[in-house]
Amino acid sequence: MLDTIYKILAFFTSDATADRWFEQIYDNFIKDDRWTWLMKGLWVTIRLTFFAFIFGFLLGLIIAIIRVSHDKRVVMPRQSFLQRLGGIILSILNTICKIYLNIIQGTPTIVQIMIIYFVILASSTNKIGVAILGFTINSSAYVAEIIRGGINGVDQGQMEAGRSLGFGYIPTMIFIIIPQALKSALPALCNELVVLLKETSVASMVALQDLLAAAMLIRGRTANAFLPLIAAAIIYFVIVSILRAISARLERRLNSGDR
Amino acid sequence: MTDNKTPLIRVENLTKKFSTTTALDNISNNIYNGEVVVVIGPSGSGKSTFLRCLNLLEVPTDGRIYFEGTDITDPHNNINKHRQKMGMVFQQFNLFPHMTILRNLTIGPMKLLKKSKEEAEKKALELLDRVGLADRAGSYPNQLSGGQKQRVAIVRALCMEPDVMLFDEPTSALDPEMVGEVLDVMKMLAKNNMTMVVVTHEMGFAREVGSRVIFMEKGKIIEENEPKEFFENPKSERLKNFLNVVL
Ligand SMILES: Nc1ncnc2c1ncn2[C@@H]1O[C@H](COP(=O)(O)OP(=O)(O)O)[C@@H](O)[C@H]1O
Ligand SMILES: [Mg+2]
Questions:
Q1: Which of A190, A202, B29, B35 has a CA positioned 20 to 30 A from the CA of residue B133?
Q2: What are the beta bridge partners of residue B197?
């Protein structure tokens, strides 16, 4: 027993093992500046995540407002032509949003990305643009539900207070309801950002040179899967940890302020 | 804007039905400039619904409401413009928790009345001072007591320079020791000839400040009178019973 442990220790501490490790690290990361492949891949991942989140957030916000406006709409007994028209348009938009949300949430992300990449936008050469579009659509569905929850969580009296001052429905939403809704939705939104960052690794399946694709590229050259994939995992983990720390800090700041 | 002969608010055959209940049953009433109309009645009698119909927070099922001569139930009239002239104070204050007190007071005048920041803040601080809260301008609502919140809520409505103020049980959510400070502000408004419609359980306020008291039950106005007659000489059995219980 002791003998076995001694042998294992000797193996890991021997000069021969150290040399082998160094050689592998050299091969996978230093030779041909392969570490810069990872950095370039990381940059693609960050850009993809950033733009998909921003656009997905804006689209999700609009969808959430349409859904809530429709659900809380008060139908007047007497309506002007414009009010009636507005009601019809809102109903149509709401139906479209509901179908959209159902489809996006009911299908795997990777299938959505592949459909957009291989089928719908097959001729486009702007790979990252296509990927941003795909993840924007995907993320908007989740953001819409998060923000809708946030809006529904705001006290009914806030809308009444805004309206009673003379603000219209949309200005009350913008100045009074949405800021409070976003604040309470902040933890869930940050979580969605983290999920999105990790999910963008799916983009490597449609030949986008993101972080995971860079790791796979190195693997192809060195025939060593372990080191490049571990390196990619560590980088993802570090970025996620940074995002988590920032969001925790933001939450604490907001909570100490007013509410 | 209007003389004393034409009513500031004219309510004609107002009916409000919810899915299962008729909250207001064919109510007609006039509210004149400078009046302090106090609405009392048992819980569920339709007092809040009546008040909230006046600025269309509740949409009437039937009937007409004229404010300063305009039929505000007509969908072609811009209700937002009329609401600017009708201040409302809620039982639960409904201050905006994400804004400072000063911002709560200036957002309406700046965005809706297009006042400059300086002008809006000057007016807000002046009114805040009058209710004894000038030093709280930079605070957030959750840093105030209930009584302070309600005084701020009254000032928020006043900053829009309304022609009428609507109060829905403004002291019902307050600890007893804070009721007085809010009623004092309302008395000050009444003294300055503000037209007010007040739903309340404060009979002392009704008697002292009211120019007319309305008794509602089951969605109907059962009796109305000037306060002295109303309390000392109630006509209907139902009002007598109600006063026996609450006084
Ligand atoms: N939003 C609503 N939906 C359904 N019923 C309501 C609603 N608001 C009020 N009601 C009903 O209308 C009646 C009058 O309510 P309300 O005006 O709040 O009475 P009060 O203020 O005198 O206590 C009650 O029976 C109440 O249950
Ligand atoms: Mg009530």
A1: B35
A2: B37, B166
